[in-house]
Every structure is written in structure tokens, then in C-alpha cells.
Amino acid sequence: MLTFISKDLKTKIDQACRTAEEFTKLYYESLDKRRYLISRLYLDTATLIWNGNGIEGKDNIQKFWTDLPPSDHSVFTLDAQPITGPEVADQLTFLVKVGGQVKYDDKTSKSFNQSFLIAAMGDKWKIVSDCFRVQEALENVN
């Protein structure tokens, strides 16, 4: 039996898609061109997992990003979903998933995946959780 989503959920999905496009444009422009400002996009208590390494708090996240070599990100895929239910109460929260290519210090481009959990804080979006993973080619897979 076919079930349709509610008008309210459809509105939230549309808003998640629009927000994800705007947010990722701002995020990667900041990361690649104005990295010294990147912490403004994170919640004070945010968590970043970068290739399996955990960093907690926006000040530590800022230091981590600042210590990496210059980068150039290209986004190829983007997906966003609203998070609903008692876990987030009435807090407007979206899961944003990104795929693309990143180049550090003019080296060879590598594929990456990144997932954000973002929440509305007044008229701004803040990153609650950020998980970044460079995709390495598998070798000797039998």
C-alpha cells in the first residue's frame, strides 16, 4: 500500500534541501578561503571526527582546521534530511551528507565524504556534529 508523506514533512524536506545548498556553499568557501573564521559555523560543544580522529569544542576544531595545509574542495553530491521526533523536540535539525573531491597543498585530489548534523540557532545554522572521511582506494582486495 502506498503511503504519502504529510505536507508538514514535505515542507521540512524542501527546507532541508535549500538550507543544505546554502550551508555547504558557505562552509566550503570558509574552509578553503577564510579558514580562520570556520569556528563561527560550529556550536561551542560541537564534535568533529576527521578520518577517525575526534576533536571536541569549536576552539579545538578551529585549531585543528588551521593546522591542516591549504585545501580546495569540490562538491559533487549533496543530500539533506530533516531530523524529526522526540530526540530533537522542536529544534529544527538537518542531516547533511556531502561527497566530492579535496586537494591539499596542490597535491593529488582525493574523494571525500562528509556528514553534518546542523541545528538552527536563531537565524543561523550551527554544526552540532561533523564527520569527515577521505576515501582511499582499496588495494589487494581478494
From TrEMBL:
Alphabetic keyword roster: Cytoplasm, Nucleus, Protein transport, Transport
Primary location: cytoplasm
InterPro entries reported in the protein's UniProt record: NTF2, NTF2-like_dom_sf, NTF2_dom, Nuclear_transport_factor_2_euk
Keyword rRNA-binding carried by entry: no
CDD domains assigned: NTF2
Residues annotated as signal peptide: none
Residues that span the membrane, as ranges: none
Stored PROSITE patterns: NTF2_DOMAIN (PS50177)
Transport in keyword set: yes
Gene Ontology process terms (BP): mRNA transport; nucleocytoplasmic transport; protein transport
Cellular localization per UniProt: Cytoplasm; Nucleus
Residue intervals of the NTF2 domain: 19-134
A GO CC term attached to the entry: nucleus
Pfam family, one: NTF2
Function of the protein: Has a role in nuclear-cytoplasmic transport of proteins and mRNAs.
Protein name per Swiss-Prot or TrEMBL: NTF2-related export protein
Organism: Apis cerana cerana (Oriental honeybee)
